Amino acid sequence: MLVAVPFLLAQRDVKRLLGYSSVEHVGVIALGLGFGGKLGTYAALLHTLSHGVAKALVFCAAGDAVQRCGSRDVQAIRGLLAAAPWAGTLLLLGILALAGMPPSAIFISELLVIRSGILDHPGVVAGVLAAMVAIFAGLIHQVGRMVYGEPGAVRRGEARGVDTGGARRRPRARDGGGRWLTSPSGSGVCSVGGSR
Fold first, then answer.
1. pTM score > 0.70 for this model?
2. How many other C-beta atoms lie within 10 A of the C-beta of residue 71?
3. How far is 145 from 147, CA to CA, in rounded Å?
4. Residue 173, beta-bridge partner list
5. Burial 157-190 (b: 16+ CB within 10 A, else e)
6. Which end is more exposed in the chain, N or C (fewer Cβ atoms within 10 Å of the end residue's Cβ)?
7. How many CB atoms are located within 10 Å of the residue 69 CB?
8. How would DSSP label each residue in 161-177?
9. Cα–Cα distance between 51 and 108 in angstroms, integer?
10. pLDDT tops 90 at residue 12
């Protein structure tokens, strides 16, 4: 868990930021199992479930932001609430849940992990709390800049291919009706409708 803190605070790639957040959450799960007992095991299982749901939501919202902006760089994504209200709101709510804001299930599971180990391992719990505060501040700082502010490269409903972190765009074909189509497998393009 402590390994994830410096990487998470210095990360500029939004998907790697979420990946290092997962490293921190796996540390919380391991602590719950390590502290043991019914409470620690319950907390670890609750944390596993709630983290999986929240992380899926945040990855979907971040993917939408990357597509709209054309970059995975946290510095390049600005003003999501203005440019994409749904994606910006879901990203913000998901990050708040991942950061452990009450009343999220992640907050409850982290509180239960701390409670399960505070009597027998107070030093470990103090270190975990310090790491959680640093991670909370880092996540809120990074995503707050993405969600609020003036939309820079993000435009409402527009996706541009500036820098997608090495991801290649699929080739597209245009049919006679002006629609862009790709095959479901992404392996090629197809055109529906006749030519004019």
1. yes
2. 22
3. 6
4. 181
5. eeeeeeebeeeeeeeeeeeeeeeeeeeeeeeeee
6. C
7. 29
8. -SB-TTPPPPP-EE-TT
9. 12
10. no
